[in-house]
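Readers of this paper often ask what the protein records in our data store actually look like. Such a record has a labelled line for the sequence and another for the backbone structure tokens. Nothing more is needed to write down the fold, since each code stands for a local backbone conformation. The record that follows is passed on verbatim for readers who wish to inspect the format.
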Amino acid sequence: MNTAAILTAMAGFAIVLISIILYFRTIPRGTVPEKVGGFATKLIIGVALSLIGVYLGLTGEGMAGALTYVLASLGIFFGGFILWVLTQRKTPIGEIKVAVGDNLLPFTSMTSEGAAFDSSELSGKRTLLKFFRGGWCPYCSAELVAFDAMKDELAKHDVSVLALSKDTPEQAEIHKTRDGLDFPLLSDPDLKIIRAYGVEHHKALGQTKNTKLTIGGVPVGLAPFKFEAMAIPTTLLIDETGTIRWVDQTDDYRLRSSSKRVLEAVKAAFG
């Protein structure tokens, strides 16, 4: 038996798996690390050990066994895939067409229930409007769940939440039901509203549909990934006159409007 190959492959797979689990546990907690160096280093070590396991299995003495190659392959695939995904984390901010002090741009949309929505319905209301990537995105899911959990605090300032993505009404309904969201999700599948506001990420990596399954608060689906246009995560705080009072964007789609920062903005705008 090629013990060295087996143990090395097992170690590589374990490092990759544990690193991914620990990282994804930070998403629903809202504690995603700003820098990815430590996480990436662990993944690189895991992938390297997996590759060494394969090499030892092919060149060393004794049978390595199928388990060695299965674990090594999984370590290489998942570690390599997440490392590649991390390289896609930057968002091209700078094209946004609204700023603090501007008026809300009028738009029409559809809710997740398939009902027509007109932005004129926001007249006389204070609104936290969130542009997000889609219900498949674990960072978007966690952020909107956090917004939902803030509804009592937001209600003290008469602020309600509204979120919009390119998801179809059907996909938005899957998202809303899955996460138990208590605010409207708007659908902009043609990106007309997203482009009007200048918050389009022209070529971003994403899944093609939403999943009904979550594990540990993180959406987990097997839908294919592909590059396509979608919204840049952007938060707008709008007062009852339709004036934008706060804009929050990030050049890293993993980093979102924290509950603390949102509440600080609400209190600064409305006392």
About this structure: The chain has a mean pLDDT of 96.
